[in-house]
Amino acid sequence: MHAEIPGVALFGGTFDPIHYGHLRMAIEVRESFGLPRLFLVPAARPPHKKPRAPVTPAEHRLAMARAAVAGIDGLEVLDMELRRDGPSYSLLTVREAREANPGAEVLFLVGADAFSEIATWHRFEELLDACDFLLLPRPGTSPESAFPPGVRLELEENRCYSLPGRTYRLPGGRKVLCPDLPALDISSRSIRDKVRRGRSIRGLVPPEVELYIAVQGLYRGEERG
Ligand code: ATP
Fold first, then answer.
1. pTM for the whole thing?
2. Which of 3, 109, 121, 143 has a 20 to 30 Å separation from 160 between CA atoms?
3. What is the atom index within ligand 1 of the atom nearest the CA of 46?
């Protein structure tokens, strides 16, 4: 355990549904960096899912996320984006977390695929100045290949704190951590697809989430996009 990263770690997402890819990454990061707690933040109205079609109602996604983290040390679900009106902009979430934790820095966990599109996010330059980032590997996307075009990142050191990986600096001084974690080939879309085709999702989501999906009859209709 390394108590080197102070502050608040946030892992935002649509979580439609939450799966073991999300959970393993959250657990790895929390344990590796010695974070007392790591917060999963389901988006109420994800502004950048394509197309901007309806996702599963937030209450269901929140309930699945809560069921999934129950009993996992240090993982918690925050409903702050659900309590806010309007689109779930990460910038507002980061600011709210900073206001609630004066003096604490925010570490924002984001998949490499999502980070590569950060220039499309709401006021992304301000977001890049508002918190540090930790890039999660996705199959086929190395963290470095996910650096958004036009954003200059300078290699600071060939490790992430005491973990193997790399630490970069953004022009505004914020860090981008790229720890060497194994990529897990699980996506929410692949789970929705399987449910729709009547295939098993055992081993991809916690049993509580599998049960919730079955009882609520989620993901049986047409896939969006
Ligand atoms: P979809 O398949 O619907 O696009 P998703 O599986 O990417 O969804 P999201 O809820 O959109 O899930 O993901 C939230 C965040 O978690 C994003 O930053 C995403 O890149 C990251 N993420 C999702 N799955 C994984 C995984 N298997 N490993 C690492 N990061 C992941």
1. 0.93
2. 121
3. 11
